[in-house]
Amino acid sequence: MIPETAHFIWLGNALPWACSLAVRSALRFGGFRRAILHHEAALLGSSIYDELQDIVGLELRLIDERAMLDPVRIGKLSLFDVYRELSQPAGRANVLRAALLLREGGVYLDTDTITVRSLSALRSEVDAFVGEERIALPYSVRTSKNPWTLGCAVARRSVRDVFRRLPSGWSSFRRVERFYPAAANNAVFGCTAGHPFVSELTLAMLALDPASRRRRFALGTHLLQRVLGSADPTWVRVLPPAVFYPLGPEISEHWFRMRERLPDLEQVILPETLVVHWYASVRTEQIVPSIDRAYVERHRREQLFSALAARVLDPALELALLP
């Protein structure tokens, strides 16, 4: 059984307040006994660090990169060596996530997630799981040399951009999203300690050449998708997009649109959805730093993100989408 621990990782000191929603929602709705935020020393003493200390069930754990990464190695090369090569937080977080799950097990969640239902049944049913999202350019398409394949991908991106801009484009996009490839994402990733798939994933990180490791997505979704393609299919439960990614990238902009009349959350979050990944890095960079409790209260009746966040923050409000 996958441990009832939710893991979060933050590198740097500027943890946005909105990310605390990920922790609060996991502890309130996710069926976890505890949550751990693995962080660097830079977070110590910040205002958000002080607020996080008051969350019951949350452990704030300083990252010891060498202790976590050095034991995973091929010959003289360890994951700690790979980690030191990297400068981008996203790449470093990919390395830490794999090593952490290999050592401790549990469920890793990105800080731009909101948990809406319990993952307890899922944790008890499988030894490892990831979810897929609907995207235009999965690893298999990006590496293709087929002009038709690449042309279709460009067309899909253009069509998706139209739905991103339409007032109710999230709803209309659902009629065509089946034409978009489903590809694994590691924003939500659960497994038992020492799981063979995660072991394969870490070894694949070590096997990449240094130049490849530094490319965007190379140690994250692209490597995950590649290793999944060659791994024993019984090792990992791959869940459909609705479970963790009810609004995929670009379409996720609709979480932050202001509108006079909001659709019911039950229309946006599907019955099978357990976690909402809202993609902090996709067209929301300017919005996220300004989000706080006052922001959520101001916009809870005109913005989907704030409507969902309000249900996490207010104990008097239960998520209507819960069974």
CATH fold naming = Spore Coat Polysaccharide Biosynthesis Protein SpsA, Chain A
CATH architecture: Alpha-Beta Complex
The number of strands is: 11
Oligomer: single chain
Written account of the structure:
This protein has one domain: Spore Coat Polysaccharide Biosynthesis Protein SpsA, Chain A (Alpha-Beta Complex), CATH 3.90.550. The strands form three sheets. The protein has a seven-stranded mixed sheet, with helices on both faces. It has a two-stranded antiparallel ribbon with strand order 4-5. It has a two-stranded antiparallel sheet with strand order 7-11. The protein is α/β, with parallel strands linked by helices and 323 residues long. The longest helix has 19 residues, at 147-165. The chain is built from 16 helices and eleven strands. The two termini are 23 Å apart. It has helices at 20-29, 47-52, 65-69, 79-85, 89-104, 120-125, 139-142, 147-165, 169-173, 196-207, 210-213, 221-230, 241-244, 265-268, 293-299, 304-313; strands spanning 5-10, 34-39, 58-62, 73-74, 77-78, 106-109, 113-115, 128-134, 182-191, 237-239, 275-277. Helices cover 40% and strands 16% of the residues.
In short:
By secondary structure, the chain is α/β, with parallel strands linked by helices. It has 16 helices and eleven strands. It has a single domain, classed as Spore Coat Polysaccharide Biosynthesis Protein SpsA, Chain A (Alpha-Beta Complex).
